[in-house]
Amino acid sequence: MFGLFGGKDWNVIAIVFERRDLYQVSGQRVKGGDAVKARDGAKAYARSVYWAVFDQKGAFKEGGPAAGSLQVPNDVLVKLGKELPTNRTVLEVLRALETKQADKIGKPLVWHGYPPRQMHGAN
């Protein structure tokens, strides 16, 4: 009965570029019109490389490259998009949001898909 009005109760995730080998998972639980604003904010944030929306059962609803995605090689971005719904750090953030431990949370992304270090010279 309550779902008839299409109320949104989303967990919005943004993967934020900190440096070449470190991204931050930023998540927030939002409802109603604020959910749309949070999603759009995650998409438009200059340092956000990827965004995603999940429901309260952990199901992926939508996502894609964000405004800061040009800071990351395309192959890394594609890999991130494929692995995001099953990434351990993302799942930890989602669990904290779903269980209402926090309505906003951020953690460093533990991931093996970071771009390889560029070698210059003999070092």
Short description:
This protein is of the alpha+beta class and 123 residues long. It has helices at 32-44, 74-83, 88-98; strands spanning 9-19, 22-31, 48-54, 60-65, 104-108.
Give your account of this protein's structure.
The protein is α+β, with helices and mostly antiparallel strands. The protein is built from three helices and five strands. Strands 4-3-1-2-5 form a five-stranded antiparallel β-sheet, with helices on both faces. Strand 1 (9-19) and strand 2 (22-31) form a beta hairpin. The longest helix is centred in the N-terminal third of the chain and has 13 residues, at 32-44. The radius of gyration is 15 Å and the shape is globular. The model has no long low-confidence stretch (mean pLDDT 91).
Structural category is alpha+beta
Largest beta sheet: what is the strand line-up?
A: 4-3-1-2-5
Oligomer kind: single chain
Count of DSSP strands? 5
- Give the count of helical stretches: 3
How large, in whole angstroms, is the Cα Rg?
Answer: 15 Å
Percent of residues in β-strands: 25-35%
Question: What is the first-to-last residue Cα distance?
Answer: 64 Å
Question: What does the main sheet amount to?
Answer: 5 strands, antiparallel
Q: Mean pLDDT, as a whole number?
A: 91
Question: Which spans of ≥5 residues are poorly predicted at pLDDT below 50?
Answer: none
The secondary-structure element order is EEHEEHHE
The helical percent reads 25-40%
